[in-house]
Design goal:
Length: about 150
């Protein structure tokens, strides 16, 4: 990670965060993908990049929190795996809501969708999907959260 030497208030940014900040626009927001399985992460990343969207990938909750802080309002959605190596991914929703209350969040789980979904039943901006999932399901869920993905 890099830290700016000319700004005392600078935060550590994960590799690539500065480029994403420069390349992001309102029409092409950055999608945060939090997934520790390389193949699944690659699949999700490719789906978004094929539609011309920027993607920021984190393999742990700690990396995700750094990206959320670094990218802030340039984020357009987050796709989060529950089974992360450092912290359950669904625990990222609270810090996301603190920083970005309207951010669409899709939580992917290999566990019970019903059980995980119950925890977020009062959050209209969160959807839970089961793993494995396919591209049409992901796009459908995202479109339900935000029409720009339709």
């Amino acid at each position: 990670m890099r830290q700016s030497t000319h700004d005392a208030n600078a935060i550590d940014r994960p590799p690539g965060a500065d480029a994403l900040l420069q390349d992001s626009s309102a029409a092409g927001a950055t999608i945060l993908v939090v997934e520790d399985e390389v193949l699944v992460s690659f699949f999700i990343r490719t789906l978004f990049e094929e539609r011309g969207l920027q993607v920021a990938v984190a393999a742990t909750a700690a990396e995700a929190l750094q990206l959320i802080e670094a990218l802030g309002s340039s984020l357009g959605a987050a796709i989060i795996d529950v089974g992360l190596p450092d912290t359950p991914g669904d625990q990222l929703v609270a810090p996301i809501r603190s920083a970005l209350p309207e951010l669409p969040v899709v939580i992917a789980t290999g566990f019970s969708e019903t059980e995980v979904g119950r925890r977020f039943q009062d959050d209209e901006r969160v959807r839970v999907i089961g793993k494995p999932f396919d591209a049409p399901l992901l796009w459908s869920v995202l479109a339900d959260l935000d029409p720009q993905f339709g």
